[in-house]
Amino acid sequence: MMFRNLSHITFADNWVLWLIPVVILLSIVWWYFLSKKNYSSLKLSSTKSFSGFGNPLKATLKKFLPVLRLLTIILLLISIARPQTSFDEEKMTTEGIDIVLAMDLSASMLAKDFSPNRLEASKKEAMAFIDERLHDRIGMVVFSGESFTQCPVTIDHTILKNQLSLVKNGLLEDGTAIGMGLATAVQRLKESQAKSKVVILMTDGVNNKGLIDPLTACDIAMQYKVRVYTIGIGTNGKAMTPVAMTPDGQLIYDLADVQIDESLLTDIAKKTGGQYFRATNNKKLKEIYNQIDKLEKTKIEVSAFERKTEKFYAFAFFAGIFLLLDVLLRYTILKSAP
């Protein structure tokens, strides 16, 4: 098992391997001259008188010792050459786009028409969406009465998801600044070199705050060729929505009309080449994300990183075993009498 997948073995110092044939050649020459030296010139008419003397096993083991030492040296040289498992770097074509999630954090996103509320349901589905977009660079913008970049566009989805988990109501001034949220999201994509740039904007209200009008932000998105997919979050009719807060900070809920500017969201999506969706429950929101996941993707070229793992341990281990065996044989069974 130690030598499995040898087809992937490479050597960091492969010049050391050239010493192996040299060692083998020198060993053959040494054995040849040693055998000539030990050859006796005494001639006997018969060896019958010597029958019964000697130990065949001991003689065999003695012949085996040079082979054992040679194997030890070869394995040590292989270890010094630093064998590694190596998967060569290669370029491959994959699918990917640059995406920014723009999420509404206004107090109404705590409404309980979604489980457990609109905001947590949106975060859950956004997490699942991120997991499906392995090769996309994704960033995140949050907005309520103002907007903020929660995470720049990145391929490191672990960092992105950590930042998404920290999102909560109260991080920003309350309100619904759709124009500011969209403008900030487009700003994150302005320098992008991707051929396909997308903003997924989620809101449950009507624009009532911010210094930038939503349609102005839409024009900016069109200028930078950013496609905007808008999602209106909220059931049809009324929903249990926060309407006040007690002195100790507890929210007071009551039924309130769900007001989403669908006309505006549809207009933004249409002008930028995107699409408007209405999510009325958790299941519908999941389906919307699945639909967006099927967007046309842009082919990009990425590199697979070369991975190397040191594998000299097995060779060094067996070299040590052979060396130990050689020493044991020489000083026990094959030990010469004084």
What does this structure look like?
There is one protein chain. With 338 residues, the protein is an alpha/beta fold. It folds into two domains: 6-38 and 56-88 and 309-331, no CATH class; 93-300, 3-Layer(aba) Sandwich (Rossmann fold), CATH 3.40.50. Helices cover 39% and strands 24% of the residues. It has nine helices and 13 strands. It has a six-stranded mixed sheet with strand order 6-5-4-7-8-11, sandwiched between helices. Helix 2 runs antiparallel to helix 9 (312-331). The longest helix has 25 residues, at 56-80. It starts with 8 loop residues before the first strand and ends in a 7-residue tail after the last helix. Mean pLDDT is 83; it is low at 1-5 and 49-53.
Give the helices and strands, then pairings.
Layout: E1 9-11, H1 19-37, H2 56-80, E2 83-87, E3 90-96, E4 98-104, H3 118-132, E5 137-143, E6 147-154, H4 157-165, H5 178-189, E7 197-203, H6 214-223, E8 226-233, E9 238-245, E10 251-257, H7 262-272, E11 276-279, H8 282-293, E12 298-304, E13 307-310, H9 312-331
Parallel strand pairs: 4-5, 4-7, 7-8, 8-11
Antiparallel strand pairs: 1-2, 2-13, 3-12, 5-6, 9-10
Helix pairs in contact: 1-2, 2-9, 3-4, 3-8, 5-6, 6-7
> How would you classify the helix and strand content by structural class?
alpha/beta
Oligomer: single chain
CATH topology of the largest domain: Rossmann fold
Query: Strands across the major sheet, in which order?
Result: 6-5-4-7-8-11
CATH architecture of the largest domain: 3-Layer(aba) Sandwich
Helix share bin = 25-40%
Poorly predicted parts: 1-5, 49-53
CATH class of the largest domain: Alpha Beta
Give the domain tally: 2
Number of strands: 13
Rounded mean pLDDT score: 83
**What is the 3D form?**
elongated
Q: What distance lies between the first and last C-alpha atoms, to the nearest angstrom? A: 44 Å
**Strand content bin:** 15-25%
Q: How is the biggest beta sheet arranged? A: 6 strands, mixed
Please tally the helical runs, counting DSSP H or I stretches of 4 or more residues.
9
Radius of gyration: 37 Å
List the secondary-structure elements in sequence, H or E.
EHHEEEHEEHHEHEEEHEHEEH
CATH superfamily of the largest domain: von Willebrand factor, type A domain
